[in-house]
Design goal:
The chain is built from 9 helices and 8 strands. By secondary structure, the protein is of the alpha/beta class. The chain has one domain: Alanine racemase (TIM Barrel, Alpha-Beta Barrel), CATH 3.20.20.10.
Length: 231
């Protein structure tokens, strides 16, 4: 199947998921996860009309970003080491994996020095799996309140990764719980502006995520034909 055909297939599935849940198609954004493909293949994704690119290792992403002269909107979707923040902030508009205050402090320091603002998702470990990164739901209110003090971080929403299930329907409670947590945090007004975004859903389960309110889905194998989305 060609890239064009894969994109058309994904589009049709997102539209059906939106229709099933009474949502508008333009409420859902696709992040094309290109971490396992070449610069040429990443360029093909951009040429095909997808503008959001997801990568999880700066060592792999930086040469692509430079070769492509910064085309597209880049999302850092993997675990981010504090010592690599300086290399990430000038290339990635979004960071989906903010999960500790030490990382937030380094992001704030580097962004302030560079005179830029980065959009961040707070990663929440909804499923409670030891293998998953992220703060616990119980930690979220205090974490978000503290994070709101940083002027160079724009907190846009929450991110989670559901367990890989043979039956995607089994992931629904995870996605629903993240949406409910976002709504609870907004009711508590823990951030200066309401949280609007939910980064959740990958190739195996994105339709369920869309039905439960995802505004960003991270798709690798369905689009580029290889690799997985998880870091």
């Amino acid at each position: 199947m060609s890239l064009k055909e894969r994109i058309e297939q994904v589009e049709a599935r997102i539209r059906r998921a939106c229709e099933a849940s009474g949502r508008k198609r333009d409420e859902v954004n696709i992040v094309a996860v290109t971490k396992y493909v070449s610069t040429a293949e990443t360029a093909a994704v951009l040429d095909a009309g997808l503008k959001h690119i997801g990568e999880n290792r700066i060592e792999v992403a930086a040469p692509k970003w430079e070769a492509l002269e910064g085309r597209g909107v880049w999302h850092f979707i993997g675990s981010l080491q504090t010592r690599k923040v300086k290399d990430v902030i000038d290339k990635f508009e979004y960071i989906h994996s903010l999960d500790r205050m030490s990382l937030a402090a380094e992001l704030e320091k580097r962004c302030a020095a560079a005179g830029i603002t980065v959009k961040v998702f707070v990663q929440v470990n909804i499923s409670g799996e030891d293998s998953k990164s992220g703060i616990s739901p119980e930690e979220a209110p205090d974490f978000l309140r503290a994070l709101s003090e940083y002027r160079h971080l724009k907190i846009v929403g929450l991110m989670t990764m559901a367990p890989f299930e043979a039956e995607p329907e089994e992931t629904r409670p995870v996605f629903r719980d993240l949406r409910n947590l976002r709504d609870k945090l907004n009711d508590l007004a823990v951030t200066k502006e309401p949280l609007t975004e939910l980064s959740m859903g990958m190739s195996n389960d994105f339709e369920i995520a869309v039905q439960e309110g995802a505004t960003w889905v991270r798709l690798g194998s369905l689009l580029v034909g290889k690799g997985e989305e998880e870091s």
